Amino acid sequence: MCRTGRQPDPHEAGDEKAADAAFAALLEDSAEDLYESAPCGYLSTLMDGTIAKINTTLLNWLGLERQTVVGRMRFTDLLTVGGKLYHETHFAPLLRMQDEISGIALEIKQDGGGRIPVLVSSVIKYGSMGELLLIRTTIFDARDRRAYEEELLRGRKAAEEARKQAEADRARLQDALAVLQQSLLPDTLPQVPGVETSAYYHTASPDRLGGDFYDVFPVDGKRFAFFLGDVCGKGPEAAALTSLTRYTLRAAALHNPEPVSALTTLNKVLHERYSGSGDPRYCTAVFGTLEAGPATGQTTVRLASGGHPPALVLRADGTADYLPTPGGLLVGVLPEARFTTAATVLSPGDTLLLYTDGLTEARTGKDRTSLYGDDGLLAFATSHAGTPPHAVVQALTGLLDSFGDGLDDDTALLALGVPASHP
Amino acid sequence: MDTVRRNNVTVTGNPQGRPVVLAHGFGCDQNMWRLTVPALAEDYRVVLFDYVGSGRSEPSAFQEDRYSSLDGYAGDVVEVCEALDLRDAVFVGHSVSAMTGVLAAGTAPERIGALVMVAPSPRYIDDDGYRGGFSADDIDELLASLEANYLGWSAAMAPLIMGNAERPELGEELKNSFCATDPEMARVFARTTFLSDSRDDLKQVAVPTLVLECSQDVIAPREVGAFVHRAIPGSTLVTLDATGHCPHLSAPEATNEAILKFLAALR
After folding, report:
1. Which residues from A are below 8 Å from B134, CB to CB?
2. Is A19 near chain B, with CB under 8 Å?
3. A312 and A356 inside one domain
4. Is A125 domain-assigned?
5. How far apart (Å, rounded) are the C-alpha atoms in residues B194 and A71?
6. Does A97 touch chain B (CB under 8 A)?
7. Which of A14-23, A369-378, B231-240 holds the top average pLDDT?
8. Residues A296 and A219 grouped into a single domain
9. Which of B28, B31, B147 sits opposite A153 (nearest CB)?
10. B18-23 and B89-94 as β-strands: parallel, antiparallel, unpaired?
């Protein structure tokens, strides 16, 4: 229920007189004394700032005598120079525009040279005719409060500095990561006679160095080698492993470009490097060679796989098939490893596609619980069979984009094709 | 960006009258001219604006490097004149804005045909044979005062202050907003203002100029007013019987009278 008026409790009315008397006895100080000894400074100034009245509290803070202040000093004379500037540029205009201003932090100068931080509030008093009469000002000692605020400001500045530093560090780190990441992949693929090449690398997170890799390079007068793979893990360790893998494969291929030989060398190097380290690391990889075949426009592909998903061959006639390489072992796990080989011939319009499992393990569906999978990829590849490598990679790039947050791993794509013979 | 929006330009008064541009100084915004506008409105086309970084200017337009020199603020003046295609305007600048007007008149002489300098100072810091009234340490103290008083400013309030002129119900909350400025921007303006030295620019003034000084002004003492008057060939000096740095607020009648008299003599 709403109470429309204050209804005194029954006992209150009877006690009122006694209470008033008790308060009156306590409050024997005059208004004059209340003004002079108030726990804050009081100041009345003319509109030009000349001090007309000041209370004892404030005089004591200032260490000044009344007669040297009243009629002789202006309010701004009590302030530090910085405070004067602030008064002229903010305080005074705001007071004029609003008729009052409150809680402004300033410092007053003491006679001995000390300073007291204060909070100042002012109000303009008007005469009965609406004329400006004077300015009433209240001044509170804000020493403790200011010290606290300064601590807060200091803390804020320190936090701000730390944030700026952290941002700079992060930017430097990003730059370093970008350079490192670039060193793991070729800037451009070389021109391979009779073969068109196209590649794409999707980085899942710019902060984390990826573990996928690929390359294409000449090995002797007639052959080019290519590889694509995926190292376990992410981050700096994975990047180091990727780097070791890439340069080992390149060096091994120059010595002997046979696919099994190159992967065997890599296996030895990785096993030796990581098996005793307490941090066993490995990779999956497809390594192969391209060699122009006896018939013009044909290229022979010979490859070996170490635990990597099978390559796809997209034919000019609109069909596509996996090039199975079952049973190949992960590279670097065992001292001796067996790798599975396969071979095919690419005719004009045919394209060989290598990819990492970021693609087939992308999560699809509304709740992101199904995987895109081998069948999905085969169907997609079939629908793009007969198109040149750059078109295949472009279509797959679009597919990767369409996965959105379902694609949470790095993905590398490498397509090698013999251009169709039609004009 | 649209200059009119960027600088929160307001045009009022007599559309047929000669344009008079009123420019606020460091501290507050165009509201400082509230007692001046009515006196000019009948005969003059009155143009008000906020410098970028002050009042209700567009905060995203603030660039520290541009507004670290008075040329940046003078650029605002010229661009406002261009946006409204003002010709032969009278520029009334308060405090540091008086010097901004000098620079703007130098760059765009066809736009600005006369200057009124209200409490001007071409240099605030003392120098050999020149008394500006302040030392570099004093300016640091002012910066500390600014820091201690984020007047009406808080991250939560900022969007209201900067962009809601059309919501008068916020009036009570917006107390002090005439002087509310993003602390970072205020700091830049303070430094630019009080560390500037435009003494050499005064000689270049080639338009009729009125120098208005106050009899008691901490920021622009009388010797500075005299310096400005001496340096600008043919200028008129009027000393207002006023205390403080804002005669347009503390002595509006006398200020308006002096401005109107100067304007009337121009034709």
Report:
1. 81, 85
2. no
3. yes
4. yes
5. 31
6. yes
7. B231-240
8. yes
9. B147
10. parallel
